[in-house]
Amino acid sequence: MNGKLAFVGFGEAGQAFAGSLSRGGLERVAGYDVNRERAAAMRALEVMPGDRALALAGAGAVWCLVTADRAAAAAEDCVPHLAPGTLWFDGNSCSPGTKTQAAALIEAGQGRYVDVAIMAPVHPLRARVPLLLAGPWAEEAAGQLRSLGMNPTVVGDTVGQASTIKMLRSVMIKGIEALTAECVLGARKAGVEERVLASLQASDPGFDWTARSAYNFERMAVHGQRRASEMREVAKTLRELDLPDRMAAATAQWQDQIGSLKVAMDRDDLGPRADALLAALKP
């Protein structure tokens, strides 16, 4: 990729990508985030911070990595500052309907919209995290991303195809996290945690229930509110498919509640993590 690359939103994903991209063909990398404190993170990663217009001016490609509930608004806010033909990589965890809405905004402004689904945590893989791409510009976009050392796979030529895969996968992945909270926290409080986990392990010996439960608590505690936003988009996806969204809606509630506690997961062991969450959950 030649020229200028810009980031809109510079949280965990933006920082992971910016710090690990192959920059051989890039003249400049710029960034904009509504959180002004992230300018320091941009400078540390050799990303030029600026306001929205300055960050986007002259960019040939833009990564949009905001929260799921801000994806369409970010597209609307940025369109006036995009050069014709700019590739807009929408990596937000949104429903196909939200992606279609954002695509219409970008394309009306003569940008080229790419539906991107980030299919694993960005750490430790960073730029090599698996990406799914869809939309009429997906093939060209994949080539551009490969030139940056990224790992894209094209799954279709229609906006929404990549996001649908991610949304429906999240029913299971984020749903298991929410079930972990309900099951293991209940078992810990009742004093039967070891027996419940032993029974689960016996039923499914290929899955380390204790280690995964500790990991699930950490993901919810650190990222629960962002995951809740994603799960509300998952629920929207299911409604767009004329299906019930009961599990997705309940998962969003658990993710939001655990994330809002702001509990530090300082210990790796399941017991201390569960105890810290239970203490914070007390009325």
Instruction: Supply the helix-strand structural class.
Output: alpha/beta
Query: Total number of β-strand segments?
Result: 8
Strand arrangement within the widest β-sheet reads: 3-2-1-4-5-6-7-8
Which overall shape is indicated by the principal axes computed on the Cα atoms? globular
Percent range for β-strand residues = 15-25%
How many angstroms does the end-to-end distance come to? Answer: 53 Å
Give a description of the structure:
The structure is a single chain. With 283 residues, the chain is α/β, with parallel strands linked by helices. Helix content is 53%, strand content 15%. It is built from eleven helices and eight strands. It has an eight-stranded mixed beta sheet with strand order 3-2-1-4-5-6-7-8, with helices on both faces. Helix 5 links the parallel strand 5 (87-90) and strand 6 (112-118). The longest helix is centred in the last third of the chain and has 32 residues, at 209-240. The chain is globular, with a radius of gyration of 20 Å.
Q: What is the gist of this entry?
A:
The protein has 283 residues and is an alpha/beta fold.
